[in-house]
Design a protein that fits this description.
Length: about 250
């Protein structure tokens, strides 16, 4: 089962709310948030950590790991107040990093997660298998033809090129970029992977790596707040993840 949480971090811009939230995340996340220079970036980082605490708590309580694999993801838009109220006693969620820097829960290797944030929203996806997630604000997406040609595979440009208006192109760009980011988070390689080495099929909901079957993944596009695009990727059942260490790939 895949569960996704999306939350506006605007309330975290208030000092009292931020202070309360900072006391409900791990020390690692708190320190990471404090390293950000801008208040908005601190709120986004802290919000992502807050959603991780919330998601792990609910995962354990409701035993989602026992749900059938392959079920359609459940996406919830949650409020900061609701999340803070649910985290009564925060747990120190210690995160390690895999070979490519992908984070995993050191004491809960059976819970896989992926965090993202953009604009005013933070996102957390959890699953019983490897996962990658991304959220993008549409107005932040680059819209130039030359930019698309540089980053998108030939198979992806058909979506971009068939758009009739600038807004449609912006929407396609944002959806494709969110999907590509989610996939690169799934593999743990990030932008170290050539973005043209795999292609997103938005119509089929797949990501294809060509002849290398280990790169195939299933794509989901959960409902996101207006003006945003979100994407979640998991490996196909018949595909093998990159690497062999279960703990290092969460």
């Amino acid at each position: 089962m895949i569960h996704i949480y999306i939350m506006s971090v605007k309330p975290l811009l208030e000092h009292d709310v931020y202070t309360e939230a900072a006391g409900k995340v791990s020390g690692q996340r708190r320190e990471k948030a404090e390293r950000a220079k801008r208040p908005g970036d601190r709120a986004l980082s802290l919000g992502a950590g807050l959603l991780l605490q919330y998601g792990v708590k609910r995962y354990r309580e409701e035993s989602w790991k026992d749900c059938p694999a392959g079920e359609t993801p459940v996406c919830s838009i949650v409020q900061t107040e609701e999340v803070l109220r649910a985290i009564e006693v925060p747990e120190e969620l210690s995160c390690g990093c895999g070979p490519h820097g992908k984070p995993y829960l050191e004491h809960d290797p059976e819970i896989f997660f992926s965090l993202s944030h953009s604009g005013e929203y933070a996102m957390c996806a959890l699953a019983d298998r490897e996962i990658g997630a991304d959220i993008q604000r549409r107005q932040d997406a680059c819209r130039g033809d030359r930019v698309a040609a540089r980053w998108f595979a030939r198979e992806e440009l058909r979506y971009y090129e068939k758009a009739r208006t600038g807004q449609e192109r912006s929407d396609w760009f944002c959806r494709l970029w969110a999907a590509k980011e989610a996939y690169m988070k799934l593999t743990g390689e990030g932008l170290s992977r050539e973005t043209k080495s795999f292609f997103v099929d938005l119509e089929q909901g797949t990501i294809n790596g060509g002849e290398d079957k280990s790169l195939c993944a299933r794509l989901y596009e959960p409902a996101a707040p207006e003006g945003y695009a979100a994407a979640v990727c998991v490996y196909h059942e018949n595909c093998h993840p990159i690497g062999t260490d279960h703990k290092n790939l969460s």
